Amino acid sequence: MGSLLSKTKSTPSTPTDTTEPKAAMSFTHYAGAQTSFKPPLIANENAFLGDVSTSTDTTAPISAGFYRLEKGTPLVYEYTYHEMKIIVDGEFDISDETGQKVHAVKGDVFYFPKGSKITFTTETFGLGFFVGQRKEGAA
């Protein structure tokens, strides 16, 4: 998760410490993204997905965004990267090639390993927030 800074006493650095201080890096804020970001249509008539942000790490990039499915054609998706997803609204019926099936609702968290083939369907709609180990737009 990174390092934490605290107000605990630390040993002062030695006079021979010549390392340059790291430049401060600012975070990015996407206000109201869950309600204001509208992912584009990616498949069928009812599957929408869009990246909100992607890291600048070219060696191990990560992308995050929203996936929305509306009632209609099931989406069958084969993952070419690892992904985590949290259901933030609505519901999905999620299954895989092993026969595992879950009725997913708000608050449920999933890990989809690279190589898994997942079927998403819904009787209403579902909205998930995802973080995938991939480049921007590589879904």
Brief account:
InterPro entries: EutQ, RmlC-like_jellyroll, RmlC_Cupin_sf. It comes from Amylocarpus encephaloides. The protein has 139 residues and is an all-beta fold.
Morphology call = elongated
CATH C-level class is Mainly Beta
Q: What order do the helices and strands follow? A: HEEEEEEEEE
Oligomeric organization of the protein chains = single chain
Distance between the termini: 25 Å
Q: Could you please say which CATH topology applies here?
A: Jelly Rolls
Given the structure, what is the number of helices? 1
Topology:
Elements: H1 33-36, E1 41-43, E2 47-54, E3 63-70, E4 75-78, E5 83-96, E6 101-105, E7 109-112, E8 117-121, E9 125-132
Antiparallel strand pairs: 1-2, 2-3, 3-9, 4-8, 5-6, 5-7, 5-8, 5-9
Region (Disordered): 1-22
Protein name: Ethanolamine utilization protein
Pfam family, one: EutQ
Report what the structure shows.
With 139 residues, the protein is mainly beta. It has one domain (33-132): Jelly Rolls. 3% of the residues lie in helices and 42% in strands. The chain contains 1 helix and 9 strands. Strands 1, 2, 3, 4, 5, 6, 7, 8 and 9 form a 9-stranded antiparallel beta sheet that branches. A hairpin with a 3-residue loop joins strand 1 and strand 2 (47-54). The model has no long low-confidence stretch (mean pLDDT 89). It holds the Pfam family EutQ. This is Ethanolamine utilization protein. Residues 1-22 are annotated as: Disordered.
